[in-house]
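User: Quick sanity check before I run a bigger batch. Here is a single chain. Can you write out its predicted 3D structure?
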Amino acid sequence: MNSDEPPSTLSFLLEPSEARHLATLCGQFDQHLRQIEERLGVTLHVRGNQFTVSGAAPAVNQARSLIEELYADILVGVG
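Assistant: Done. Predicted structure follows.
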């Protein structure tokens, strides 16, 4: 996180809440989420279908968009 950026936290839900699809999104041992954290410089916390992203505001918004897009692709069977 850039020291000029104030920290930001954003919570959101992914719907529909389907365990199989959420598991695909997160990856084995949450490896997909760890990749997002490393590449965007954010921290992710997940409980069921509730996601909380913390970090610099632009990165937090980018992480949310990415997660929502990936989940939408999973729901329609892409990937």
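The first helix runs from residue 19 to 26.

User: Great, the batch can go ahead then.
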